[in-house]
Structures are given as structure tokens and as C-alpha cells.
Design a protein that fits this description.
The chain is mainly alpha-helical and about 350 residues long. The protein has helices at about 35-60, 100-105, 135-150, 160-165, 170-180, 185-190, 195-205, 225-230, 250-255; strands at about 215-220, 235-240, 355.
Length: about 350
């Protein structure tokens, strides 16, 4: 005895055994056809149930089995999702639609320039506050009370204060403009107060006098004046030694010496500019001049020569010559002219330093 073979497949219909059908067994016997078809259906259905159970288990175990739906935990909605609009007074965890929000916000004033109505209130700031807090009527009244309480009786009303200020609505501006032309009271005025003229000069560093910038002067020391006179310690002095200087460093000196060069004056005599007189014509200011002799002659007198006096003459810078043949006292031939003197022609003099104040 054996079991009918089962094929897990769906049979669309079940064979009906007819009265005329013979009794025929075996796997394909007509007598077993109904049982075989039903067995195949049952096997198919069993297979589908088992497969469906596994698919359900896999679906349940999947992290996001429905990608077309938003998750319950922190859903990231897209498009234009909608929800029922709850009442304005609702205060729960329901979704707030744009309609709900606008209905609620419509009753609130905006932060920027709100147009408040009714009787809005705010905390009353402390009297010592001086910031951007709202000033309530209580704060203002307390401030005015404190102001009036500390005022004299003649100035404890706004009308009295206005009269005292000359009814000038721009009193602050008027006073600011008036004070703008006043010297501020600082340490300088305090130092100058009550001082004599000499004391003021000492305070200003003028006790020893002040050389003007650009005016040449003689100085009896090789040490510069700002190292000798404490009153001149912040000044700058330069020598007339042919050096150049910078107009950016010494702008005032550059106005006096626009060529930005101090002439070389060491070892020289200073001569006043001719300025059209004609004694030293052709000269420009600050120009140098070489040494020179004025044209002149030298005379000698011979004795007992070739009859009478013999006169010889020469000009400056000529070579000396001898008066051979002219009887000189003593009977010998002596030089009539020589090269006396040193390396230059000069008057008696005293050497000074020649300086100018640059700053």
C-alpha cells in the first residue's frame, strides 16, 4: 500500500466520478483522481502559507518595509503635507497647521515697531537703570518725583525750569556752541595760572630764548645747543657744512633753504649780499667767492743809479724780480719784491661755530 504522489500546484477543478466510471486504482487511476487533485491543492496551499509566513517575518524584521510612508519617529515630510487645523485655544501635542499658527499669532504684536493697544504692561525698572528697558508710568513718576524733591522750590516745576533756561528749546545746543569757543580747564591752565612773565617763559621752555628756525647764528661751542641748553633739548640744530637735508623732516627749514642744502661755511668769512649796490655786483644769495687782491702797485727807490730816481712797479700775483744794476743801500743787489705772508689773505678774527635751528 502506497501514498498518492502530491504535486504542489493549484488544480482549477476537481474531477467528478461518474457512475459509468470503472473502478481503477493506482497513481493515475480514475478512482484516485479526485484525491490526487485535492492532495495537490492542499500541498500548494500549504506551501503558499509557509512562504507567506516567511515573507511576513521578513517584512516585520525590515528597518523600513514601507519606504513610501513616513516613519513615526522624526518623520522628514516632503511636499505639502496637511493635517486637521485644531482650535485656537488648543494646547496639546497635536500638529499645528499654518492656519492654526496664523490664527494664534494674529493676536500678538510684532517685535519690530509693535502697535500696542489697550493697557500694555511691563516690569518697572529700577531707578538707577539707564538702558533700553521700557519705562513704565511708575518709573517715570518716580524719576520725576526724585527730580523735583532735589530741586529748590523756585525750580520744582517744568514752567520754572523753562523760564530759568530762557525758554530755549535748544538749550543744550546753545550751551555746547558757547562752550566750544572756551579753553578747557586742564593741567595746562592750572600750570599757567598765577605765573609771572618770566615764569611763563620758563614753563614754555623759552627762559633761555628761542632761536628762530632757519635763521643762521654763531655758537661759541663745538657741542650742539640742544645738548647744552636744557630748554632746547627737544630742538634740532644743523651746521653749515654743505650737507643736504630732508624737507619732510625739516619742512620749516625747507621754506628758508628751498635748495635743501646748507652752504659750506666752515672756515669762511660771511659777506653781506650786495643786493644791487654795485660794490660786489653779480652775486646771488648763498653763492661762494674765491679770495682775491685788489689791483695795486709796489714802488722802490734806487740811489746813485744811472741818473736820478728809478721807479719799478708790478701788480699782484706777479713773480718777484731783482733790481740788479740799481745801487741799494749797502752796495749789494737785493730782491726788490718777495712772496711775504702765509697761504691766505685774512683780517684778524675769532672762530665761532655757525649753526641754524632746523626743528
Amino acid at each position: 500500500m502506497a501514498n498518492l504522489p502530491e504535486t504542489p500546484q493549484w488544480e482549477d477543478g476537481i474531477y467528478q466520478i461518474e457512475v459509468s466510471d470503472p473502478v481503477l486504482g493506482g497513481p493515475d487511476g480514475i478512482s484516485n483522481r479526485q484525491a490526487k487533485q485535492l492532495a495537490s491543492r492542499t500541498s500548494y496551499l500549504k506551501q503558499q502559507v509557509e512562504k507567506g509566513g516567511q515573507n511576513l517575518a521578513d517584512h516585520i524584521a525590515a528597518p523600513d518595509p514601507h519606504t513610501q510612508y513616513a516613519p513615526k519617529d522624526s518623520p522628514a515630510l516632503t511636499g505639502s503635507p496637511t493635517a486637521p487645523t485644531v482650535s485656537k485655544t488648543d494646547n496639546s501635542t497635536k500638529l499645528a497647521t499654518t492656519g492654526h499658527v496664523k490664527t494664534v499669532v494674529a493676536e500678538y504684536a510684532p517685535l519690530a515697531s509693535p502697535g500696542l493697544t489697550g493697557k500694555p504692561t511691563a516690569p518697572t525698572a529700577a531707578q538707577a537703570s539707564n538702558d533700553t528697558q521700557l519705562a513704565t508710568t511708575a518709573f517715570v513718576k518716580a524719576a520725576l518725583a526724585a527730580l523735583v524733591a532735589s530741586s529748590p522750590e523756585a525750580l520744582d516745576t517744568l514752567n520754572e525750569l523753562a523760564a530759568a533756561l530762557g525758554n530755549d528749546p535748544n538749550f543744550a545746543t546753545t550751551m555746547t556752541n558757547a562752550l566750544a569757543g572756551k579753553q578747557p580747564l586742564d593741567n595746562t591752565l592750572t600750570e599757567l595760572s598765577g605765573k609771572s612773565v618770566s615764569a611763563l617763559l620758563n614753563y614754555l621752555g623759552l627762559g633761555a630764548g628761542v632761536p628762530a628756525i632757519g635763521i643762521p647764528f654763531f655758537w661759541p661751542s663745538s657741542a650742539m645747543p640742544n645738548t647744552v641748553m636744557t630748554e632746547w633739548a627737544d630742538m634740532v640744530f644743523l651746521k653749515f657744512n654743505g650737507a643736504t637735508f630732508s624737507a619732510s623732516n625739516y619742512p620749516k627749514l625747507a621754506l628758508v633753504f628751498p635748495g635743501l642744502t646748507l652752504p659750506e661755511a666752515r672756515g669762511e668769512f660771511i659777506r653781506i649780499w650786495d643786493d644791487g649796490r654795485g660794490v660786489d655786483s653779480g652775486r646771488t644769495l648763498l653763492s661762494a667767492q674765491l679770495d682775491d687782491f685788489k689791483t695795486h702797485e709796489h714802488k722802490i727807490l734806487g740811489t746813485n743809479g744811472s741818473g736820478g730816481n728809478v721807479v719799478f712797479g708790478t701788480t699782484s700775483n706777479a713773480s718777484p724780480f731783482y733790481t740788479n744794476g740799481v745801487s741799494q743801500p749797502g752796495g749789494s743787489a737785493l730782491p726788490a719784491f718777495q712772496n711775504p705772508g702765509g697761504t691766505e689773505t685774512r683780517p684778524r678774527n675769532i672762530a665761532f661755530n655757525f649753526l641754524v635751528r632746523a626743528k
